[in-house]
User: Fold 4-nitrophenylphosphatase from Candida verbasci.
Amino acid sequence: MSVKITTKEQAEKLISSYDYFLFDCDGVIWLGDHLLPSVSETLTYIKEQNKNIIFVTNNSTKSRDDYLSKFGKFGIKNIAKSEVFGSSYASAIYIEKILKLPKDKNIWVLGEEGIEKELKELGYTTIGGTDPKYMENGVKFDANDPLLSQIDENVGCVLCGLCFQINYLKLSMTMQYLNKGLPFIATNIDSTFPANGKLLIGAGSIIETVAYATSRQPDAICGKPNQSMMNSIKADNPNLKDKPKRGLMIGDRLNTDMKFGKDGGLDTLLVLTGIETEENVKNLNNDEQPTYYANKLGDLYDLIFLE
Amino acid sequence: MSVKITTKEQAEKLISSYDYFLFDCDGVIWLGDHLLPSVSETLTYIKEQNKNIIFVTNNSTKSRDDYLSKFGKFGIKNIAKSEVFGSSYASAIYIEKILKLPKDKNIWVLGEEGIEKELKELGYTTIGGTDPKYMENGVKFDANDPLLSQIDENVGCVLCGLCFQINYLKLSMTMQYLNKGLPFIATNIDSTFPANGKLLIGAGSIIETVAYATSRQPDAICGKPNQSMMNSIKADNPNLKDKPKRGLMIGDRLNTDMKFGKDGGLDTLLVLTGIETEENVKNLNNDEQPTYYANKLGDLYDLIFLE
Assistant:
C-alpha cells in the first residue's frame, strides 16, 4: 500500500532516506505559469541537506536554458543547467551518443525552439522546426507548394516533439523524410498536454499523425517513461546507477513519472497537484501504487516547519 | 486469378456485363488537376449504353457541387449531382438519417469547405471548419487563447476529415468536444492523400491525432471501404441492392476501392493509373485479387474504338 505523507516525522524520514530527488516540473513544481505553494522552500531545504536534485521533464518546447529562465522568474535562482534534464536535451544526446549522427548531417525537426536550441548546442544544423518559411506557406497550403519538392538529401534523422505551430505542410514534409527510411526519434509520447486546467494535444498525438501516415513507429522515444532518459541520468550519476533505491522520483502522472521511476528501480512519490486524484491512487492494484503520495510537494516543507 | 483487360472483346464484354459502374475519382478519372487519357470518351460510351454511373470518392475537401465544377473544367458536362457520392455527403447523410441529429444542433467540424457545404445543404450549422477565427489565432497559438474556453454547449456531434488548414488550436478544440463524449464521425480514414506524385497526410492520419489524444475511436467512418457508404448508394439504387453482381467498382486502391466493392458483393476492376502496380496485383493471394485489372480506365474506350 502506498503511504501518504502527512506528518513531520514522515517528511523528515523521507528526505533523509534518499540521496537523489528527481522531479517532474509541470504539476509538481508549477502549474503552467503559477509556482505551486512552498515549492521553493522545499527545494532549498532538500539542497541544504546536500542532496542531488534533477528536474526531469517531457516538455520539449523548452531547452535547459529556457527552464533556468523559468525557475529564475519564480525567484528560484539556485538551479544549475546540469540539474535540468528535458526530453529535447535527452533527444539531442541520444542522436549524438547513441545514433552517432555525424555533425555535418542535418536534422529535420517537427517541433519547437527547445529542440532546435539543444541540437544547435551540440553542433547540429536543424531544418523545419520554427523556420517561418514552413509557417507562411503552411497557412495557405496547396498541394503545388514547391517546398514539398525541396527535400534536403543531407538530412540524417527526423526528430518529432510537441509542435504548437503544426500545419499540413510541416506534417507532409515530415512524412517525405520518414518515407526515406531515416531514423525516427520522438522526444516523448504523452498523448495530452495540460495547460490552464485543460488537456490539449500532446507530443504523442502529433507523432501519431506521421506514424499512421507512414506506417512507422518511432525508433526511439527519449522522454519518460522510456528508460533511455533514465540511463542518461544514471550515466551522469554513477552512485544512482549502483544504488537506484537511493533515488526518489517525484511526479504527478502514474503512467509517465511513476512508471519511469519504478522501471528505473527508484522509489516513487506521487503528488496530487497535477492530473491524478487520491481516489485514483486508492483504486490502484498493489503493484501499480507509488511508494508514497502527498497532497503537494510543498507539504515536505510545510510539515517539517509549519506544523 | 485476376483477368487483365487487353482486347476489344474483353472490353465490350465487361461493359455489357454490368448495369452499375462505380468509379473512384483520383487515380482513375484524373490525377490531381490532369484528366487521364480517354476517360471522357469512356464515360460517354458507358452512358450511351444506358448504364448507371456513380462517382464514389473519399476526398471530403470537396462537395458534390465542387465535383461537378471539376468535371466541367475537364469538359465533362453530362454528370448529374445525384451521380456523385463523396465522403462529405455520405457523412452528412449519416448524421441526418442514422444519427438523427436535430437540425437545431450545431456540428463541430475539423475539415474543409466540402464538409461544411454538404452539412449546410441539409440545414445544419457548422462551427470550426474553415472559420478564419480559428485560423488566425492558431498560427500564433498560446495556451491562454480564450477560444479554448468558448465551448459551444449546443454542439451535438463532431465530424472530422481531411484538413489542409490544420493547426494546434483546431486540434485542441476538437479534443475538448470529443472529451464531452459527443458522437465522433470520420469522413474516411485513408492514411495518405496522393497529390502531384507525392503521398501527403491523409484524413485518417489527422483523425488519428485526436483519437490518440482522447483515447477514442470514431463511432462511424463514412468513406470507402466502410459499407455505410455502400448502403447509402444501394438505398438510392434498389436494383443494385438486389443484384450486387450487376455492379462493378472501379478504383486504383486495393485497400479502399477494391475492398469496398468486394465487401459490397460487387465485382471489381483495378486500374494502374494510381498507386498500385501490376507486380502488386500478381503478388496478391487469390482471394485478394480484383475481378479484373487494366492499365487505365480509358483502355475500355481505346480497345473498342482505336485498335
